[in-house]
């Protein structure tokens, strides 16, 4: 997942939408990509990231088309209701009443709404319809439950990644080398941090502090985060630009240590998961696209964003793998700048890069936690019923918070956490759900709107072939990743 949830509630221009989408996609996944990029080999990685960027762009256009179809269905129902209300109100008067009123008195309601407002574009995206609501409109009950299970698993993975990333950064800053006597050294978890306290124990202490400070937000609602997100976005881009420039300077001086392999197929499954995770934005598109004031060029905007993001990921990864020795690359890329004074010898900036994930991820954790809690409530929603206070205010927050904290307590291997989350839950959210959404949206609307109805937000990949291609691709990728994990474990 990316840098947070963009939902200002105010209309904005397409250019601002482009910036918001860029910020939305580029987040935690970008910090874990350089190591995955180096592990799989730069030729294989470059090829795979281009393919996955194309696949993600395709499914993004699927979601936008499904959003337009959902708006069309709601608009059509509203129009039918208005016409029924108009016919009911007109039937309340007799012919004598109508003649008695005379022609000078205007009608309070027109017979046809189209006469009042002219031709209506039912496919205009004017109402924000979240993916869960679209699933309820186009899927049956089993499909809706599968959707919520998929997004819940993905959000659990998100929270586990966040819960591990912050303590890792704090532990590396607190226990790392800051004297510049050595650079580019990786420590073991059993190495000492403070006297008899090992680095692993220090990580768990920071995890406990993180849980105590941010965990309580799960029991409340996260509101008015607009300016906080702007601040963290600014910090994120300062950090990314700094890392790219510092790596380019070192490479330009000829002191880069990186000698990445051309290809290493054993690293492909993990790279696949990291890339899927890094291009994830489909679940947040309704909040992002709906407020755009002029949606005529939404498809072009999305394409431009994906080209820019692909270029950024490639630049960040290539500068990283040729600047640092592959064996010394951290799961969290920012940590490579905290104890290597050959790259950065200004202590304040080293601390800034080391602590940068702490600030940005900490602001996103409560938002994702509240989102996951609300999805749990929706999954078990009972028509016409309410939850007891204990269930609503205690049980749901606890089942939201405890599992990711337990996972983070057991492991802090960020590369694996991101890879598994992206490969499984991410594949469902990014590929399978959008493909089925657009497929069933078209089937639902064709009998109502007719085949001649024009959806101006229709995906460029509107042929049925592309929908089935995405589904087959997703199934193949899941089988490949699972087989690789089993084979790897068997060899161990």
From TrEMBL:
Cross-referenced Gene3D superfamilies: Amino acid/polyamine transporter I
Location of region: Disordered: 80-101
Topology class, membrane: Multi-pass membrane protein
Primary site of residence: membrane
Protein localization: Membrane
Protein's UniProt keywords contain Glycoprotein: yes
Keywords, in A-Z order: Glycoprotein, Membrane, Transmembrane, Transmembrane helix
Amino acid transporter transmembrane domain span: 17-67, 132-444
GO cellular component terms listed in the entry, alphabetical order: membrane
Pfam families in UniProt: Aa_trans
Residues passing through the membrane, by range: 12-31, 37-57, 138-157, 202-222, 234-251, 301-330, 350-373, 394-414, 420-441, 465-487
Entry similarity comment: Belongs to the TMEM104 family.
Matching PANTHER family: TRANSMEMBRANE PROTEIN 104 (PTHR16189:SF0), TRANSMEMBRANE PROTEIN 104-RELATED (PTHR16189)
Name of the protein in question: Transmembrane protein 104
Lineage: Eukaryota, Metazoa, Chordata, Craniata, Vertebrata
Gene (UniProt): tmem104
